[in-house]
Write a structure and sequence with these properties.
The chain is 71% helix and 0% strand. The protein contains seven helices and no strands. The protein is elongated, with a radius of gyration of 15 Å.
């Protein structure tokens, strides 16, 4: 792992711990590491090569896929657990990330 600013590392830990929280925002993370939203956005993107939102989405979708493959929870339950307020938003993001629908994973593993 290449060196990353300690504030970015702290933000990554917070994302890993709280990705399922519906109120998790870039502004809240920036505040918690003592930076303005503007500066945090640029610092995060510089160190991660993706935006905060892109990283959070990948984390959420990765955990969502794991839950789809390993639990009997419904797609709706999983979408909510990983931080999506609406199943349709989870479905669209999942399809863009993986090229197939969450329901396809459920059918294959059941």
């Amino acid at each position: 792992v290449a060196f990353k600013d300690p504030r970015v590392l702290h933000a990554l830990e917070m994302i890993a711990d709280r990705y399922g929280q519906h109120g998790l925002t870039e502004r809240a993370i920036a505040r918690s590491v003592g930076l303005s939203l503007w500066y945090f956005s640029r610092l995060f993107a510089h160190h991660m090569d993706v935006t905060f939102r892109q990283h959070l989405q990948v984390v959420r979708l990765t955990h969502g896929r794991r839950l789809l493959e390993t639990t009997a929870l419904s797609v709706k339950e999983i979408a909510y657990l990983v931080g999506y307020n609406h199943t349709s938003t989870f479905d669209r993001a999942f399809g863009r990330q993986y090229g197939f629908a969450p329901n396809d994973v459920k059918r294959k593993t059941s």
